[in-house]
Amino acid sequence: MTRSGSVKVPDGKLVEVTLTGDERIESARVTGDFFLEPPEARAELEAALEGKPLDVDREALVEAIEAVDAQFIGFDADHLAEATMEAIA
Amino acid sequence: MNLRVVDSGTYSEPVQQALERVLIDRLGDGEIEPTLRFWYRDGPAVPLGRFQAYADEVAADYVAKHDVDVVRRITGGGAMYVEPGAVITYSLYLPRSAVSDDVEASYAELDQFAIDALRDLGLDVRHEPLNDIAHPDGKIGGAAQLRTDDAVVHHTTMSYALDIAEMLRVLRIGEEKVSDKAVASAEKRVARINDHVDASRSEVIETMIDTAGDSYATVEGELSESTLADARTLADEQFATDEWNRQL
């Protein structure tokens, strides 16, 4: 099934996560009006979420997202983790 | 720093967006001078942010029926509705060494000449972080940037006399059922230059070229034939394709 979650960063951007998978995150799509340098790192953010069990804790998500070598502009790893937690809740 | 000012050339939306890629790459390769370009469009369009989902932003049936060209940008940020003559879009292509590494500060710095021009015309505008130009009545414009190793493109679109009712039909922020009401109502608040000043669109652009001259040594110029040929090819291969525009 497809699940989604989104976070509107106060005075910032919208980050939306759309996931598939029943026990684990099989595929993840990260969209929104944020900025990311380099832009190609969006695929790495998605890869950081994929494979995580649906009962993953938030800390583990933040750690995986922060391991991506990119500059997040208008959002941070916590926001993407929060949107992901909402999607898997 | 010298700044070439290009204030001519009407292109389709895919060619406009392809030019952003071509010009940032040419500047990074040292093939062109730092440049300020004003855009002239040939039809209504939606420049979509690089990371936005097409279906989330655009009323797909409406844009298909009304020939609104939806083109994904190389830059992040949000979708806008644009019409020829009703918005002012400009791009700055600069060496990375000339732009602050602090991204938030650089948005304010690179929009400053435009804010100065609008203030000279009597408009009460200010930079609003991260990337907006704001008026007490609402948002006048928004900017977006892409950085490569050697170059930065900073492009900004401001509403001059945009048809807000049409914007709300084209963009899904106009739909009542859009889930995040707070976002929708905030984004609907668009302020238009022409509601507050007497100046024509070309007078606003002339004023902007004047204020750019306060910070840079400006010289008039135009895009080369080879730049345009590259942009037209890239438009056909990428910016006019569903594969790029509907990738998300």
From TrEMBL, chain A:
Molecular function terms in GO for this entry?
A: ATP binding; lipoate-protein ligase activity
| Keywords associated with the record | Ligase
Sorted alphabetically, the Gene Ontology BP terms of this entry are: protein lipoylation
Protein name per its UniProtKB record: Lipoate-protein ligase A associated domain
User: Which organism was this protein described from?
Assistant: Halapricum desulfuricans
**What is the organism lineage in this UniProt record?**
Archaea, Methanobacteriati, Methanobacteriota, Stenosarchaea group, Halobacteria
